[in-house]
Amino acid sequence: MRQVPNGEKRVTDPDQKERLAQLEAKIEAAKLAQAPKPRVDEHYSAANLAWRMVIELVAGLGIGFGIGYGLDLLLGTIPIFLVLFTMLGLAAGIKTMLRSAKEIQEDQLAEQAERDERD
């Protein structure tokens, strides 16, 4: 090492420079090995899609049932609100299922169009 006018020490030995370059290359290789892999597009399986739709339907039914039961309990009525809101929950669940199916179908059509465009 040699002293420069401002007091810093610099590596001048060619062997030191070569070792430093090798060390930097090893560090870079280690960083690349530890880097996260790029995400692959998620493709949902049919089972995942079916479970998603079932959960949406059951959630709609459950919410409707809960609202109806709560109103019947508070108002002291016959289970008219229970039946009414359970049916509304069923309709909301089916609507959500259909919206999910449409979204999935649009994604699949877009992927198909992209593949056709590449070919």
TrEMBL record:
GO BP terms: proton transmembrane transport
Entry GO terms, CC: proton-transporting ATP synthase complex
Keyword terms, alphabetized: Hydrogen ion transport, Ion transport, Membrane, Transmembrane, Transmembrane helix, Transport
InterPro entries assigned to the protein according to its UniProt record, in alphabetical order: Atp1_alphaprobac, ATPase_put
Pfam families: ATPase_gene1
TM regions (residue ranges): 49-67, 73-94
Protein function: A possible function for this protein is to guide the assembly of the membrane sector of the ATPase enzyme complex.
Protein family according to the UniProt entry: Belongs to the bacterial AtpI family.
Full protein name: ATP synthase protein I
UniProt organism field: Shimia gijangensis
